[in-house]
Task: inverse folding
C-alpha cells in the first residue's frame, strides 16, 4: 500500500467531538506531513515533522494537533475548534535530506454530521 | 511565502491530442518543481519533476518545461489517452534549500475517447 497506511478511510464525526486520524509508514522516512484537500483548493499543509519529537505548523494548523513520538507514526487530531473539518486528509512522508519526493497515503475522508 | 497559481482548472481534450497545464510561482529562490497526478479516489503520485538548473525534462509522453526568468513551468502530455484523465497538481519549494512544497489548486484533465 505504498508504505504509508492511513486509517480510517472514512470517518463520521458529530460536531464538538475530537477525532484522530492515523498515519503509519514503514519506509523509514524522516519527514512526515499532513495535508488537507478540498475541491478546487489543492493540497494545503496542516502540520509537518522532520524528526521525532518535533513538528511545525503549516499554513492551516488552527484547530488541529499532532504528535511524533515514533518515527513511523504521525497521528493528526481534528479538534472541535476546527470550524470546517469536513475534508479529505492526506498524510505523506519524505526520505532524508537530498530528496523532495513525497509519498502519499490513500487518505482519510472526514465528514462532520 | 510561496504562491503557486495553476491554470486551467479544468481541461478537456480529445484522445490523441496534447494537453498543457501551466503554473506560475512567486519566489525566485524556489528550485524544485514536481507534478503529481491524482486519479479519482486514489492518492497523488509523482509523475515528473524538474530542478531549477534544467530547462526541460521528458519522460515518454510527459514533459515539463521551466522558465526561471518568467517564473513559470508547464506540464505537457502528448498523445493523450483515457487513462491520463485525472487531477494534476503542480508544486514548488517554498524557498531554496527547503523541502516544503506549495501546491497549485489542481487541473482536472478529461480525455475524451
Result:
Amino acid at each position: 500500500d505504498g508504505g504509508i497506511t492511513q486509517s480510517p478511510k472514512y470517518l463520521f464525526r458529530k460536531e464538538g467531538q475530537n477525532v484522530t486520524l492515523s498515519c503509519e509508514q514503514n519506509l523509514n522516512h524522516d519527514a512526515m506531513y499532513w495535508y488537507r484537500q478540498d475541491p478546487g483548493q489543492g493540497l494545503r499543509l496542516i502540520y509537518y515533522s522532520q524528526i521525532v519529537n518535533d513538528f511545525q505548523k503549516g499554513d492551516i494548523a488552527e484547530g488541529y494537533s499532532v504528535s511524533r513520538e515514533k518515527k513511523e507514526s504521525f497521528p493528526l487530531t481534528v479538534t472541535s475548534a476546527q470550524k470546517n473539518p469536513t475534508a479529505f486528509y492526506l498524510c505523506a512522508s519524505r526520505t532524508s535530506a537530498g530528496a523532495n519526493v513525497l509519498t502519499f497515503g490513500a487518505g482519510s475522508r472526514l465528514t462532520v454530521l | 511565502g510561496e504562491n503557486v497559481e495553476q491554470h486551467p482548472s479544468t481541461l478537456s481534450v480529445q484522445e490523441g491530442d496534447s494537453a498543457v497545464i501551466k503554473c506560475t510561482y512567486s519566489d525566485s529562490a524556489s528550485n524544485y518543481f514536481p507534478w503529481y497526478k491524482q486519479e479519482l479516489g486514489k492518492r497523488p503520485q509523482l509523475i515528473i519533476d524538474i530542478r531549477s538548473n534544467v530547462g526541460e525534462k521528458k519522460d515518454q509522453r510527459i514533459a515539463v518545461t521551466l522558465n526561471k526568468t518568467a517564473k513559470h513551468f508547464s506540464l505537457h502530455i502528448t498523445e493523450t489517452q483515457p487513462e491520463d484523465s485525472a487531477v494534476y497538481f503542480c508544486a514548488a519549494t517554498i524557498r531554496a534549500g527547503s523541502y516544503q512544497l506549495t501546491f497549485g489548486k489542481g487541473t482536472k484533465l478529461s480525455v475524451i475517447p
